[in-house]
Write a structure and sequence with these properties.
Length: 241
């Protein structure tokens, strides 16, 4: 079973999603990689049948590839059509009176800026809610001039900028993984603080294999760290690392 913890990042993504859905507007969550944005979006999409979730990917995309990703997520067959032909088909679907799609874009900074501006106009043009998640600094620095970024930003009605994960986030994840003992939970918090939420979840998934279906203690956590990395990585279980 996959553990989905309600970390501060999850709550922020959920708040923006609820806002976009209720107001039929565009919202955004910006934050560094590894804090749990993708996990939250995937879980929220799984609970909401009208969500169209588009994982854009970790590298810059062409307009045609983004359009094809959206069409694929909407289960629209586009084959060899151009980007703008695909967008015409997508927007034709959005105009349909029975369309209730809600759009979520992961790694939105990799969408071409002009294309992103058009997507962020969907709430106004079609009443289709849009939530984008990604790295605001990369978008501003590498993908757009200041004026272009301002045009993107002006289309977003609600935005949350995520800070670094908190100790409470790491402890929440540890509890959700049935980690027992103060020493073990402190080790998880230290490991998460020295790495990331993504790394902590991966380590705990590995630790479960050593627990044989039981709760996770410090011994299983230490074994998982050595197995995933090496003996030297045990220092990550200390706040002094």
């Amino acid at each position: 079973m996959t553990h989905i913890s309600r970390t501060s990042a999850y709550v922020s993504v959920e708040q923006c999603f609820d806002y976009a859905l209720m107001r039929r507007e565009a919202a955004a969550v910006f934050g560094a990689p590894g804090v749990g944005k993708t996990t939250a979006m995937t879980d929220i999409a799984a609970k909401n049948p009208n969500v169209v979730l588009v994982h854009v990917g970790s590298t810059r995309c062409s307009p045609r590839s983004v359009a094809a990703m959206i069409a694929d997520a909407m289960r629209i067959w586009v084959e060899h059509r151009s980007a703008w032909q695909i967008m015409d088909i997508i927007e034709s679907n959005l105009r349909h009176p029975e369309c209730n799609d809600v759009f979520m874009f992961d790694e939105a900074q990799n969408i071409p800026v002009g294309f992103l501006k058009d997507i962020l106009d969907w709430p106004k043009r079609f009443g289709a809610p849009v939530l984008i998640c990604g790295n605001e600094h990369i978008l501003k620095r590498t993908r757009a001039s200041g004026a272009e970024f301002d045009q993107v930003d002006s289309r977003i009605s609600k935005r949350i900028r995520l800070g670094a994960p908190t100790r409470e986030d790491f402890e929440t994840i540890a509890i959700d993984f049935d980690v027992f003992g103060t020493d073990a939970r402190n080790a998880c918090a230290a490991y998460g603080g020295n790495t990331s939420i993504r790394a902590l979840v991966s380590m705990l998934e590995t630790a479960r294999t050593f627990a044989e279906g039981g709760k996770l203690g410090l011994d299983e956590i230490r074994k998982a760290v050595v197995f995933k990395d090496n003996t030297n990585a045990l220092k990550l279980l200390s706040r002094a690392a």
